[in-house]
Amino acid sequence: MTIASCTLRRLTAVVAGAAAVSVALSGCLYAQIPAEDSGSESAAPTTGAEPATDGVPEELLPFYDQQLEWGSCGDGFQCTTVTAPLDWENPEAGEIDLAVVRQPALSGQAQGSLLTNPGGPGGSGVSFILDSVDYAVGQALQESFDVVGWDPRGVGESTAVRCFDAAEMDAFLYDIPEAERGTEEWEAELEARAEGFADACEANSDGILEFITTEQSSRDLDLLRGVLGETELDYLGYSYGTFLGATYAKNFPGRVGRLVLDGAIDPSTSGEDVGVTQAVGFEAALRTYMQACLDGGTGEGCPFTGTVDDAMGDLAALLAAVDANPLRSSQDDRLLGADSLMTGVIAALYNEANWPYLTEALAGALEGDSSIAFLLADSYNGREGGEYVDNSTEAFNAYNCMDYPAESEQAIEETEQRIAEEAPTIAPYWTGASVCEYWPYEPTGVREEIAAEGAPPILVIGTTGDPATPYEWAEALADQLASGVLLTYEGEGHTAYNGASTCVDEAVEAFFTDEIVPEDGLVCS
Q: Membrane spanning segments where (predicted)?
């Protein structure tokens, strides 16, 4: 996860990513499966339900009183736009638009609206539903609920953060510094790149950067609840979406309906601790992948032999070799450096279904072929055909630079030392310059425990082998929440609901449809 820092070095932008799925040779990791027909007939334009405005302050009623006009956007989906204040603390300061999509309940008799967030921060909830509704939400919930996705403020089709064009983004994400890694000159190159990105975001985002925060977005979420006519919020959040959901519960405990937080983030964890935990998590996932590769479980042609330690050593040698002699793409003349190769590795580790691609990518890189490694890195970065299909990189940085307080230089140095010791293969490619160092606004977020006193039971799901949002974060969040209920999935990959385990699926769906709260501590495998 990108985090704020007041020093010249910091952790790279890795993730509290969206619910990652199997790479489909195109698209990005926020919704990487092909678009599917929902099975519904195209819906005619319709007027929304009466807004639910009980308890809403008078100065906010013009926003909560909006009457939504839904229009068909194909394959049974309906789309609309909701107007929100730019700044909830000063609602007269300006307005932004929120793009919203819904699939009406397939049964024709909705229990209510189920709002979903795919994570990020920066993942498009509109694309999540339009392109992959069957991955986002299981069939039982599609039958029972109007499934609603939206692009949070700063994201996608909503009023969005804008920074670079495609060529500039290519340079930012893929260009290889001329100086030797680790030198002062290398750091200076990365600092200049980070400063240029931050300056471009301020210049091109029309004054919204200060207000791209999870706190503000949680207020948007309550607005969506209200204009949809729901007195309580039913919500399914993945990864970063768990932090958004927990923040909502903190701010509006009396309006919580049924919340499921899958792939949970610990809201009290500092940015530096996030970086360490994720680095260690991905190192562990990489070792698990290596064992499977050596055992023949990741497709044909595992390029490594010997023990897991031997394989990790060979991978470290490959990364160093690519760092010294980048591989040229046969597609577009880009160079694959070690940082981009590591991005591809990280992308593949989100889900076991991606492991055969990782095997192919690493085998190819050993032979001088960068094509599959670029495929994985491009998928992570939202790059398709030389263009960027979303603004996830811009929004990701915008949220994290405002959400995470700056850490001391000593804290960052200690963090880098811990990563070097506990994640030695990943460590050389996990540090760099901070975009947040040059962000035009000071962070306003705080890192603290969330109890959400007064909220009904909130279901928190953690996966024991999750590298992006490690299991201990789910344990921590469930323990912090006054009404937290922990469900554990024993397995690999990022997030658990909808396909990883029938046990998990049944528990989640019974919670939403029948209000059956699973036993706290339930373990599924």
A: none
